Amino acid sequence: MMVSVKLPVLSILVALSAPLAHAQYTAKEWPEGPSKQRFVDTCNGCHDINRVRGGYTPEGWLMVVRMMQNMQAPVPAAEWGGLTDYLMKNFPERKRPAAIVVDGPVKVDFHMWDVPTLGARPHDPLGARDGSVWWAAQLANKLGRVDPKTGAIREYTLKSPFTGPHGLVDDKEGNIWFTGNLAGLIGKLDPKTGLVTEYRLPDPKAKDPHTLNFDQKGILWFTVQQANMVGRLDPATGSIRLVTSPTPKSRPYGIQINAEGVPVFVEFGTNKIAAIDPDTMAIKEYALPDARARPRRLAIGSDGAVWYADFARGYLGRLDLANGAVKEWPSPSGPQSEPYGMVFTKGAVWYSESNAKPNTVVRFDPVSEKFQSWAIPGGGDIVRNMSVLPDGNPVMADSLVNQVGIVEIK
Predict the structure, then answer these.
(1) Is 156's pLDDT higher than 80?
(2) 3-state DSSP call for residue 401?
(3) How far are the Cα atoms of 147, 224, 386 from residue 153, in angstroms, in the given order?
(4) Residues 187 and 180 sit within 8 Å (Cβ to Cβ)
(5) Which H/E stretch holds residue 62?
(6) Is residue 333's pLDDT more than 70?
(7) Contact present, 229 and 245 (Cβ < 8 Å)
(8) Which of 49, 136, 202, 316 lies in disulfide reach of 165, CB 3.0 to 4.6 Å?
(9) Could you tell me the residue ranges of all domains in the chain?
(10) pLDDT tens digits, residue range 370-401?
């Protein structure tokens, strides 16, 4: 028996896709099958139905169906099996570029853990200051933690239903801060008590806070992707300020703080990277040379350079904020490899190719300008963000295979 939702399913699931509106489709436009009408009624009512055209493996569809069930999609219990069969039969995984694994001098070990709640869609990972690994279980309304030394796992249920936890960062007291992507809030979890404090965004248009990071003064900066905003929260007072990106529909996405305390963020809806003055909140944009560029994540190098993953073109790029100079390198698995989550650690850039099959972890040495890469055990799918543990090892979360892991650099 389905449990009644406390928020409309439409408002919840549409926030997970890029468009905020979508066309309506009739049954005649889709393959025939016993569950065709249920598919059209349900999937077309919650998000852009064309998302299914990308397809998944049978295992991938099983995980996606669990995600839909976690979000209480309006499908009678007796019809889930037929709907799952319809999806598997008619929307197989699209052709993806084969991963190009590049040999090199660095040795790594992968350590992976299964997320206990199926269909959780672990989104952003966090390498916490105490050496633990956290993840945002976006479609399970939880945060999770694993102790790499013991393998002990604990999940924390959040305060409000359908919060949609997304970005994660910890503070000096060990609290875990997160963006409530579906609920328009910033949250703070005290792991010692399990209590959650919520800070609602003051503008009703700011419905989808995305990624967040602390500056050196303890101010929390965050992006609000679809609302085209960037914000700051003062934990001492709870006050929140929001500003709008100068470029319409620029979709502020990943955000990092450089050594000078300046928040730098990528604009996934356009070919720009931006920096925000921490005092005035004035935004300065840097246009990338190729109009097709769509930077999705970024990392700050030891010299202050901004490294970015060009998701649309399959490139790794470097921006010098001092003079605006840009240099780019094609990612090993090609223009459709979709570079995504990334970090800078131990003198190199580390990122994942999210569309290569299998997904890869890639290392780029800025000195030699050489790549090295590894296939993620189990195939990956999809590393949307990365973080770094105190020992310098990258951590990742694989959304579709419901895992989190550490890349141990030997």
Answers:
(1) yes
(2) coil
(3) 7, 30, 19
(4) yes
(5) helix 58-70
(6) yes
(7) yes
(8) 136
(9) 9-90, 108-409
(10) 999 999 999 989 999 999 999 999 999 999 99
For residues 203-213, average pLDDT: 96
User: From its phi and psi, is residue 127 left (phi > 0), alpha (psi between -120 and 50) or beta?
Assistant: beta
- Contacts of residue 361, defined as CB under 8 A and 6 or more positions apart, other chains included, come to 108, 350, 351, 352, 373, 374, 376, 383, 394, 396, 407
Q: How many residues does the chain have?
A: 410
For the record, the structure tokens of 5 come out as 């939702």
Return the higher-pLDDT residue of 17 and 192: 192
Instruction: Give strand pairing partners of 163.
Output: none
Average pLDDT on 63-67 reads 94
| DSSP string of 4-57, one letter each residue | PPSS-HHHHHGGGSS-S------GGGS---TTHHHHHHHHHHHS-GGGGGG-B-
Sheet hosting strand 394-398, strand order edge to edge: 108-114, 403-409, 394-398, 383-388
d(CA 278, CA 27): 51
291-320 burial, b if ≥16 CB within 10 A, otherwise e?
Answer: eebbbbbbbbeeeebbbbbbbbbbbbbbbe
* pLDDT, mean of residues 219-231: 98
**Model confidence at 139: pLDDT above 90:** yes
Q: For residue 113, give the nearest of 139, 144, 141, 138 by alpha carbon.
A: 144
CATH dotted code for 108-409? 2.130.10.10
Rounded CA-CA distance 119/141 in Å is: 11
Confidence at residue 41, expressed as pLDDT on a 0 to 100 scale: 85
pLDDT reported for residue 42: 85
The pair of three-digit structure tokens given for residue 262, joined into one six-digit string: 């300046």
Residue 95: DSSP 8-state:
P
